[in-house]
Amino acid sequence: MPVFLDTTAPGFEAEFSALLSAKREDSPDVDAVVSGIIADVRSRGDAAVIELTSKFDRLDLTPETLAFSRDEIDMAVGDVTPDDRAALELAADRIRAYHQKQMPEDASWQDACGATLGWRWTPVSAAGLYVPGGLASYPSSVLMNAIPAKVAGVERLAITVPTPDGAVNPLVLLAAQLSGVDEIYRIGGAQAIAALAYGTDAVAPVDKITGPGNAFVAAAKRRVFGKVGIDMIAGPSEILVIADKDNNADWLALDLLSQAEHDESAQSILITDDAAFGRAVADAVETRLQTLERAAIAGPSWRDFGAVITVRSLDEAAELSNRIAPEHLELCVADPVALSQNTVHAGAIFLGQYTPEAIGDYIGGPNHVLPTARSARFSSGLSVMDFLKRTTLSQMTPAALRAIGPSAETLAQSESLEAHGLSVRARLDQLNR
Ligand SMILES: NC(=O)c1ccc[n+]([C@@H]2O[C@H](COP(=O)([O-])OP(=O)(O)OC[C@H]3O[C@@H](n4cnc5c(N)ncnc54)[C@H](O)[C@@H]3O)[C@@H](O)[C@H]2O)c1
Ligand SMILES: N[C@H](CO)Cc1c[nH]c[nH+]1
Ligand SMILES: [Zn+2]
Fold this sequence. Notes:
This protein is α/β, with parallel strands linked by helices. Helices cover 46% and strands 15% of the residues. The strands form three sheets. A six-stranded parallel β-sheet has the order 1-11-10-9-12-13, sandwiched between helices. The protein has a five-stranded parallel β-sheet with strand order 6-5-4-7-8, sandwiched between helices. A three-stranded antiparallel β-sheet has the order 2-3-14, with no helix packed on it. Helix 7 links the parallel strand 5 and strand 6. Helix 5 (82-100) packs across helix 7, helix 6 (139-152) runs parallel beside helix 7 (170-178) and helix 10 (249-260) packs across helix 12. The longest helix is centred in the first third of the chain and has 19 residues, at 82-100. The structure holds nicotinamide-adenine-dinucleotide, L-histidinol and zinc ion (ZN). Zinc ion binds next to helix 10.
């Protein structure tokens, strides 16, 4: 059973804190394993990647077969049904349209002393996109990573996706084709992240790695950060549903299970102002678990990390939501827009009972790679900005240098940085001659 909490009950604060701090991933063991894998890939390159892929994905590769060939991709994509293709194309179009609106503008202006200042956005040259493939395969994650990169103008896009036992989802390959990916490697886990970061003979290194994955992938991204950029650590999925009693309990049960089925460490929480409705949703979850094919994953996730919290008011629900800072927040209440004004820490908000979170996972348009583990307090979901860098621009005229240069010289002296001051002074002396 998930935990049932009530804000009016004694001991609520302690139980709520325990829920917030529940350890759901990244044990020290994982980090030790990952550190060994990265060191191995750095020293033995393709040989290590091949050996680890055989061990973890039960797939024997050679340096030549690490990447899918064009023929393999064309052949697999040829098997995609027209309905699947149409759905993926619609998703790609909607995700592209949404992300195009995120493109920031360059800026340039002349200030009062005549200096021209501004900034310019440029894309990273090469991005590596991790597509999870262990417990499920994620064509949608290909679109969510590759399309913003392409919109940003990234020149080279490489995907890594594990294919356990060699099983490939042709939609992953089609999604890569639709979004303009250049290379697809059938490797996963920490070895894939290490290959993208440090390069091997078969995999050229990239500048930035994005994409979600399990605890091994997350630990590897943490470790390679600095050598390459990373987007975030997107861990096991989470959903928080805030609902009043005027909802369909079965719909909400399915929404909770939609994230529970990703991973045994996923977290699904319902907050409601009606205790009886909370019970009804929990019962509906149990009923659905009896027939759900992925109950083996969703069941443990719901029972170990799930929660139903009864609150006195929706304002109190919003306060708790901000403390949880969930990856996904569904607002199934009479006025979701008004409530959303108060829910400020969440990766993505889904407004109203006709907006199941699953719409956002696939087709809504916004990105589904989102901050987890309470990091929505300080970070945002994947976007075009993750593939761009902002370079500042400054141009002084002689008059501008005369106006502000002496202050630079003063500040350089205060830091005892002689050459700094002299580099300004030399120019001022010349101008004053
Ligand atoms: N936040 C998001 O946007 C988002 C989107 C999709 C999926 N997800 C999450 O991504 C995760 C996907 O996980 P997954 O496992 O299905 O796929 P995955 O591709 O992340 O991991 C599979 C790889 O893990 C490695 N691995 C497995 N066991 C290992 C071990 N004992 N030692 C070393 N390496 C090992 C293997 O190399 C394997 O190829 C889930 O947690 C899901 O919730 C998140
Ligand atoms: N809900 C996941 C992010 O937590 C994304 C996803 C992909 N496919 C289905 N769902
Ligand atoms: Zn999902």
